[in-house]
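> forwarded from #structure-qc
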C-alpha cells in the first residue's frame, strides 16, 4: 500500500460569501512569499477561483470534485497536483456541509476534507455578530465528528472592541482563533452573471488583488500556527494519479442506449457499489486487447496495442490538437490537456479573439467553457477564424465543444454571427441553469461510444434553440429527463462540462479519431 503525506489545509465556511476565496488565495500567496512550494486546489467544478490560485502560487490550480470524478479519485488527483510541494491549500465550496443536491454529503467540502484526512479552517463572516459566533462555530465543529475543524479565521471584523468580544466568546468553543481580518475594500474582486471575472480578463488588476489578499492574510493570520495545523493531516493510502497510467485501465461495460429523441434511460447511470478507480468506458468489452484495422476486401491485420487499447506504433507520432483559450474561453481542467498529451496529442493553444487561423496542421479542436457572450461582437468580427472552424468541422475533423464552445459553433449568439457549424441559435437568458447532471452518451461520437456513462455540470445563463440535434450528445437523467447537445460528423457539442479524469478513455478516443480522420 502506497502512503503519502503532504501538509494540507481545507479552507471552509458556513456559507458562500463568507470570504473563503480571499482567505484561501491570500494564504496561498502568503505561504509562497515565505518560499514554500504551495499546491492550490478547489473543491467542486468551479473554473474561475483556480485562476486566482495559480496567480498566488505560480502553479496550476486544480479541482477536486467527488461528484464529477468519484470519491475514489480525490486522493490520487490531490497527490498528482501536490507532488513536490511543501504545503497544499484547498479552498472549499459553498457552506462546509453543502454538497450535490439530494446526494447527502457527496462532493461537499466536508466530504473532500474527510477523503483527504485534512484539518478544516472555518472562515466566519463576523460582521453582524459577537457572542453568537461561538454557537455557530460549535455547531459546525460538532456536526460531523469525522470532520476536524482545527481553527477559525474571523473575517470582516469591524474594530478592536469587536475582535475582543469575538475572541472572548470563542474561548468557550474549543476552537482556536488562527486569524482576524478587518474589512478591506481593495481585496474585493469584480463579479458578473456567473461569478468572479476570470484572471485572463483582468490580469494586472487580478495580480494586485492577490497581493492585497496576501498582505491582509499575512498581517491578520498566524501563519506558523496554520502551517503546524497543516502538518497534522493524516497520511493518504493511495498513489498519485498519472495520465499515462490511467489510459491503460480497463473499461466498464457500456449501458443500454436510448434512441435519439427519447428520454434518458431509467436505470441509474452509475454502477451500484464502488466504482473502479479509473473507469474507461469508451470501447465495448469485446474490443479490448489487440485491435484489428484495415482490410476492405476482408483481409485484416492486427496492430499491437497497450492493455488499454492505445496504438503503440501511433504513439511515436503526435497529432496536433488545437485548444481554444484567451479571455473568451478560460474554462478548462488541467487534466484534460495532460490526458490528451498522454494519448499522443500535441496540444496547441490559440485565442479565437486574436488568431485569424487555426494552428498549422490542426487535426482536432477542443473549445471549452468561458464567456463568449461577453465577447460576442469580437468573436463575430474574427470572420477568418470562424470560417476556418466551420471548414474544419465540415471536413469531419473531431471537434469537442463544451458550453461556451457550443455557443461558438452555433449560427449566431445574441444576433452576432458565429461559426455556423450547428443549425441552432444562442442567446442570453435571465434564468440561471446550474447543477450536477447524470448523463449517458446517446450517440457514437469522437468522444464516446453510445452508452458511455458520465457525470457533468451545467452553469450558464444562455439558451440554445433547438437544444439538441438529430443525434443528441447526452441523455440527462436529472433534474428533468431529456436529451441535449449535438453530434454530427466529427463534432460533439454540449452544455455539459465534464471532467475527463473520470473517463480517461474520452481523451484516448478523441486522439485516435484525430489521427484517423
Amino acid at each position: 500500500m502506497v502512503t503519502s503525506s503532504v501538509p494540507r489545509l481545507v479552507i471552509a465556511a458556513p456559507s458562500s460569501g463568507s470570504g473563503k476565496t480571499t482567505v484561501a488565495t491570500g494564504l496561498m500567496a502568503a505561504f509562497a512569499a515565505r518560499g514554500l512550494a504551495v499546491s492550490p486546489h478547489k473543491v467542486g467544478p468551479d473554473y474561475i477561483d483556480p485562476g486566482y490560485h495559480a496567480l498566488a502560487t505560480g502553479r496550476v490550480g486544480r479541482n477536486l470534485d467527488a461528484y464529477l470524478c468519484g470519491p475514489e479519485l480525490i486522493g490520487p488527483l490531490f497527490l498528482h497536483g501536490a507532488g513536490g510541494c511543501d504545503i497544499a491549500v484547498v479552498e472549499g465550496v459553498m457552506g462546509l456541509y453543502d454538497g450535490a443536491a439530494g446526494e447527502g454529503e457527496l462532493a461537499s467540502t466536508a466530504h473532500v476534507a474527510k477523503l483527504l484526512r485534512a484539518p478544516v479552517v472555518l472562515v466566519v463572516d463576523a460582521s453582524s455578530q459577537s457572542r453568537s459566533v461561538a454557537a455557530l462555530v460549535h455547531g459546525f465543529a460538532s456536526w460531523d465528528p469525522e470532520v476536524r475543524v482545527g481553527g477559525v479565521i474571523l473575517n470582516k471584523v469591524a474594530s478592536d472592541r469587536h475582535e475582543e468580544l469575538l475572541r472572548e466568546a470563542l474561548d468557550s468553543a474549543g476552537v482556536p482563533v488562527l486569524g482576524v481580518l478587518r474589512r478591506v475594500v481593495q481585496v474585493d474582486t469584480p463579479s458578473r452573471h456567473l461569478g468572479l471575472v476570470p484572471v485572463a480578463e483582468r490580469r494586472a488588476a487580478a495580480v494586485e488583488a492577490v497581493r492585497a489578499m496576501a498582505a491582509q492574510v499575512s498581517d491578520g493570520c498566524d501563519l506558523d500556527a496554520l502551517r503546524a495545523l497543516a502538518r497534522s493531516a493524516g497520511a493518504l493510502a493511495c498513489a498519485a494519479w498519472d495520465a499515462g497510467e490511467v489510459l491503460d485501465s480497463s473499461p466498464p461495460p457500456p449501458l443500454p442506449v436510448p434512441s435519439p429523441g427519447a428520454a434518458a434511460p431509467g436505470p441509474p447511470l452509475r454502477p451500484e457499489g464502488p466504482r473502479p478507480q479509473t473507469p474507461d468506458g469508451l470501447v465495448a468489452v469485446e474490443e479490448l486487447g489487440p485491435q484489428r484495422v484495415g482490410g476492405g476486401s476482408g483481409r485484416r491485420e492486427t496492430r499491437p496495442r497497450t492493455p488499454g487499447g492505445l496504438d503503440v506504433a501511433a504513439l511515436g507520432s503526435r497529432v496536433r490538437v488545437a485548444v481554444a483559450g484567451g479571455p473568451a474561453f478560460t474554462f478548462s481542467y488541467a487534466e484534460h490537456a495532460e490526458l490528451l498529451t498522454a494519448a499522443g496529442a500535441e496540444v496547441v493553444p490559440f485565442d479565437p479573439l486574436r488568431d485569424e487561423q487555426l494552428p498549422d496542421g490542426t487535426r482536432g479542436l477542443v473549445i471549452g467553457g468561458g464567456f463568449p457572450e461577453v465577447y460576442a461582437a469580437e468573436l463575430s468580427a474574427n470572420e477568418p477564424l470562424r470560417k476556418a472552424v466551420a471548414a474544419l468541422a465540415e471536413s469531419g475533423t473531431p471537434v469537442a465543444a463544451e458550453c461556451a464552445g457550443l455557443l461558438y459553433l452555433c449560427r449566431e449568439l445574441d444576433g452576432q454571427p458565429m461559426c455556423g457549424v450547428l443549425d441552432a441559435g444562442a442567446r442570453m437568458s435571465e434564468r440561471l441553469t446550474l447543477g450536477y447532471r447524470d448523463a449517458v452518451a446517446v450517440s457514437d461520437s469522437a468522444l464516446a461510444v453510445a452508452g458511455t456513462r458520465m457525470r457533468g455540470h451545467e452553469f450558464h445563463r444562455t439558451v440554445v434553440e433547438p437544444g439538441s440535434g438529430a443525434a443528441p450528445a447526452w441523455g440527462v437523467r436529472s433534474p428533468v429527463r431529456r436529451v441535449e447537445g449535438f453530434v454530427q460528423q466529427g463534432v460533439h457539442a454540449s452544455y455539459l462540462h465534464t471532467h475527463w479524469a473520470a473517463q480517461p478513455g474520452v481523451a484516448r478516443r478523441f486522439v485516435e479519431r484525430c489521427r484517423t480522420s
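QC bot note: The chain has a mean pLDDT of 87. The radius of gyration is 24 Å.
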